[in-house]
């Protein structure tokens, strides 16, 4: 079952309330997205751990309801 971009954004914001989240549907199929997540929670944390935080926010939906997510994370400037 495909996910809506708004659902992905809501799940990320629930876990990272200050996050600025930009979601792009890459194919229009609800299965392939790109996401940019900017949060102060990423300060001083490795890129790998930042990505793990986002995947954790998706509560196991990756690989099931959400087939692919091209993820970029950043700290606010």
From TrEMBL:
- List the residue ranges forming a coiled coil, or say none: none
* InterPro entries xref list: BolA, BolA-like_sf, BolA/IbaG_stress_morph_reg
Cite the Gene3D superfamilies for this sequence: BolA-like
SUPFAM superfamilies in UniProt? BolA-like
Look up the domain of life of the source: Bacteria
Signal sequence extent: none
Task: Give the protein family.
Answer: Belongs to the BolA/IbaG family.
Q: Which named protein is this?
A: BolA family transcriptional regulator
Task: Please give the organism.
Answer: Paremcibacter congregatus
């Amino acid at each position: 079952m495909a996910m809506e971009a708004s659902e992905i954004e809501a799940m990320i914001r629930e876990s990272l309330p200050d996050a600025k989240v930009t979601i792009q549907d890459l194919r229009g199929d609800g299965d392939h997205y790109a996401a940019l997540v900017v949060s102060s929670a990423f300060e001083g944390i490795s890129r790998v751990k930042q990505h793990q935080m986002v995947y954790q926010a998706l509560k196991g939906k990756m690989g099931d309801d959400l087939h692919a997510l091209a993820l970029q994370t950043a700290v606010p400037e």
